[in-house]
C-alpha cells in the first residue's frame, strides 16, 4: 500500500506552510526605510519646501526632517552618513570639491535641483558726522566695495559663499563665523561686525521682520557668473526699491545609494515631486520659491 502526505493533513507540510506564508507576508508588508533629511532653521526656505513636498507626495511619510544651521552642516552630515538627504547650496558642493579637494563629494548626487537663493548683505545705516567746519563725513558700509578691510559675519553655508565671493570680486574682508542668524545680527548691532552676509531664498520670513538695518547691493562680474546668477531683492521693510544681488542654485542632495529599497524610495520621491511641480507652484500656502523651480537645470550630477 502506498501512502501519500496530504497538505491538509496534520503532517510536517501542514506546519511548514503557515510559517512560510507568514514570513512572505511580513516581507511584503515591510515598510520602506525611514531616512533623515537635513534642512535648516524651522522658519527657513529649506524646511518650508521639504514640508511642501510632504503635502503632495506620500513617499514623504518615510522621510524625517532634521533641523540644522544650514548648508555647511548639511553637507557634513550627508558625507558622514548621519543623514540620507540634505538641502545644500551648489557653491558649497563646488567649494568642497575644488577648494577642499574632498574626494567624498564625488559620491554626492542631486535628487532634485531646486530654487536660487539670494545673497543678502546687511549693514547698519550709514552715520553722518560733521566737523567744526560743517563738512560731512559718511561712515559705514554703503556699497560692496566698502567691505574692504571690514568684518563680515556669516553662518552655515553663507561662510563658504562669503569666502568665494571675496576671492572672485577681489574685495578682501575678514569673515567672522557666527552660530546662527540671531547671533549674527546681535553682533552687527553691537558693532562686533560691520556687515552680515546671508544666503537665503527670498522672501525669507525672518528678513521681513528685520528693522534698523539696510540691504547693500552686491554687483556681479564675469568670474561670479560662472556660479552665481544676477538677482534682485524685494523687501519693502528694508528698501523702497529693489536691491541688486546675486543668487546660487540650491539642490536636494543625496549619496549614490545602491540598496534596492532605498533607491526605490528616493526615485519614487524624485518622480512624485517632478510630477507635482504645478501643484507645488500653484496650491495656496506653498512657498513662493517653487515658482523659481524648473527641474531642468542640474548644477550637480543627477541621482538615477
Protein architecture, described:
Keywords: Receptor, Signal. This is TRAP transporter solute receptor like protein. The chain contains nine helices and twelve strands. The protein is α/β, with parallel strands linked by helices. The protein folds into two domains: 35-118 and 249-292, 3-Layer(aba) Sandwich (D-Maltodextrin-Binding Protein, domain 2), CATH 3.40.190.10; 119-246, Periplasmic binding protein-like II (D-Maltodextrin-Binding Protein, domain 2, 3-Layer(aba) Sandwich), CATH 3.40.190. The strands form two sheets. Strands 1, 2, 3, 4, 7, 8, 9, 10, 11 and 12 form a ten-stranded mixed beta sheet that branches. The chain has a two-stranded antiparallel ribbon with strand order 5-6. A hairpin with a 5-residue loop joins strand 5 (127-130) and strand 6 (136-139).
What tags apply to this protein structure?
304 residues; D-Maltodextrin-Binding Protein, domain 2; 2 domains; 10-stranded mixed β-sheet; two-stranded antiparallel sheet; 31% helix; elongated; disordered N terminus; TRAP transporter solute receptor like protein; receptor; TRAP_TAXI
Sheet-strand content, in percent, reads: 15-25%
Note the main sheet: 10 strands, mixed
Runs with pLDDT <50, length 5+? Answer: 1-9
Mean pLDDT: 89
Quick one: CATH class of the largest domain? Answer: Alpha Beta
Distance between the termini: 62 Å
Compute the number of structural domains.
Answer: 2
Structural class: alpha/beta
Amino acid at each position: 500500500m502506498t501512502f501519500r502526505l496530504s497538505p491538509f493533513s496534520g503532517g510536517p507540510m501542514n506546519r511548514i506552510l503557515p510559517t512560510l506564508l507568514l514570513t512572505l507576508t511580513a516581507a511584503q508588508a515591510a515598510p520602506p526605510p525611514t531616512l533623515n533629511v537635513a534642512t535648516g532653521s524651522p522658519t527657513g526656505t529649506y524646511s518650508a519646501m521639504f514640508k511642501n513636498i510632504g503635502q503632495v507626495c506620500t513617499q514623504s511619510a518615510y522621510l524625517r526632517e532634521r533641523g540644522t544651521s544650514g548648508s555647511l552642516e548639511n553637507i557634513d552630515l550627508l558625507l558622514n552618513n548621519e543623514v540620507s538627504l540634505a538641502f545644500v547650496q551648489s557653491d558649497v558642493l563646488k567649494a568642497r570639491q575644488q577648494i577642499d579637494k574632498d574626494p567624498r563629494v564625488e559620491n554626492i548626487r542631486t535628487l532634485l535641483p531646486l530654487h536660487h537663493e539670494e545673497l543678502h548683505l546687511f549693514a547698519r545705516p550709514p552715520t553722518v558726522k560733521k566737523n567744526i567746519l560743517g563738512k560731512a563725513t559718511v561712515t559705514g558700509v554703503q556699497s560692496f566695495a566698502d567691505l574692504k578691510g571690514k568684518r563680515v559675519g556669516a553662518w552655515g553655508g553663507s561662510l563658504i559663499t562669503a569666502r568665494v565671493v571675496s576671492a572672485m570680486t577681489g574685495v578682501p574682508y575678514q569673515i567672522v563665523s557666527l552660530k546662527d542668524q540671531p547671533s549674527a545680527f546681535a553682533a552687527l548691532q553691537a558693532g562686533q561686525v560691520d556687515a552680515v552676509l546671508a544666503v537665503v531664498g527670498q522672501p525669507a520670513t525672518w528678513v521681513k521682520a528685520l528693522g534698523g538695518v539696510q540691504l547693500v547691493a552686491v554687483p556681479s562680474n564675469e568670474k561670479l557668473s560662472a556660479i552665481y546668477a544676477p538677482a534682485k531683492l524685494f523687501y519693502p521693510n528694508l528698501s523702497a526699491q529693489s536691491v541688486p544681488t546675486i543668487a546660487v542654485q540650491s539642490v536636494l542632495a543625496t549619496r549614490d545609494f545602491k540598496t534596492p529599497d532605498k533607491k526605490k524610495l528616493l526615485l519614487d520621491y524624485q518622480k512624485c515631486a517632478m510630477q507635482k511641480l504645478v501643484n507645488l507652484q500653484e496650491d495656496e500656502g506653498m512657498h513662493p520659491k517653487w515658482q523659481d523651480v524648473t527641474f531642468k537645470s542640474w548644477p550637480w550630477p543627477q541621482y538615477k
